[in-house]
Amino acid sequence: MKGFAEFRMPKAVFYGNDSLSKLGEQVSLLGKKALIVSDRIMEKIGNVKKCQDLLDEAGIFHVEYLEVNSEPTDVHVEEALKICIDNQCDVIVAIGGGSCMDAAKAVAVVATNGGYIGDFMGGKRPVEKRPIPLIAIPTTAGTGSEVTNVTVITNTKDDIKMMIKNPAFLPEMAMVDPILTYSSPASVTAATGVDALCHAMEAYISRLAQPLTDNMAISAIELIVNNLRTAYINGEDKDAREKMALASMQAGLAFTNASVTLVHGMSRPVGALFHVPHGISNAMLLPAVLEFTKESAVDRLADIGKILRPDLKTLTNSELADVTVNEVKKLCRDLNIPNMKDYGLDSERFNQVVSKMADDALASGSPGNNPKVPTHEEIVELYHYCYNYDFTVLETVAK
Length: 399
Prior knowledge:
Blueprint: E1 12-15, H1 23-30, E2 33-37, H2 40-45, H3 47-57, E3 61-65, H4 74-86, E4 91-96, H5 98-113, E5 134-138, E6 150-155, E7 160-165, E8 173-176, H6 186-205, H7 211-233, H8 238-258, H9 262-274, H10 278-293, H11 298-308, H12 317-334, H13 340-343, H14 347-363, H15 376-387
Parallel strand pairs: 1-8, 2-3, 2-4, 4-5, 5-8
Antiparallel strand pairs: 6-7
Helix pairs in contact: 1-3, 4-5, 6-7, 6-8, 6-10, 7-8, 9-10, 9-14, 10-12, 10-15, 11-12, 14-15
């Protein structure tokens, strides 16, 4: 690390079982009228009702926007914003996965600053006024959005996932209640869990890594590799769920301060153009990107290899870097992660848009934080490699 580093996080984090019970009390400290941003799945399984009941007990007026889906768009932001403004809401509660929290972050900023959410991408427009206070409540263990200053919103006109980073997007408060993750189906547990692993690994190898983010990233990686398979196989395993919730939050703190790298840069265009869930598109790319990056991040990947396989610490750093790639492949295989072809991406359309995807990936800025910064041509080649990627073919590790 050169010079000094900056580390940001919410003003308060409530972590642990039943931490959601503090919602009414904390909202009453921030405002009098709350907008709940969520989705229909959260409504169906009763999580929205839990929030409504807690706000009712505290005497807080509330309205809801429940139309967010797996890929938040500028349309969702505009619809939720109208409800927020029409009802003069002065606090926002987001409950759900990263999509719900990202949409809520966008509403919180635009509500006080005006304009279109895309105006704030790349710092083109400064955030001049404080956003509406946001309490973020995750129901999956993966995105870490409850503690990040990033929002990812799809521009529906141009089919671009806008990654917008600004301290204003950092929630006022996070409530990380592992009990809320018990309802996540196995497929969501796998996708969000690998997303958290990407956050942690990318933060650790990022050119912007620093000691505080390193600590968070390494802790998250260890928790994920030791608990994700269990949470995937048995969603009722309380210990695994608690540790994955903690890992997700730690990984979020790591990457929001050290940034993500090439995996996320390449993942967003796949999600925008083919509507692949974010965690799955990350998982499709992670092993291949690690292979591409390996020679430029041998020591860092070796550190991760020692965590993934503590029994192999006597290997050279180069060999341990290969171990890291192998163990990530095995994890993706065990979680039934498909490659792009098997997921169903149409090959003809893929070939038509792959150059655009590479352009969009580079434009996001994330690839510039990778230890090995790729060219446009290298990203196109990586996309083609990932299309038919075989998670069962392992690197040769010398003994």
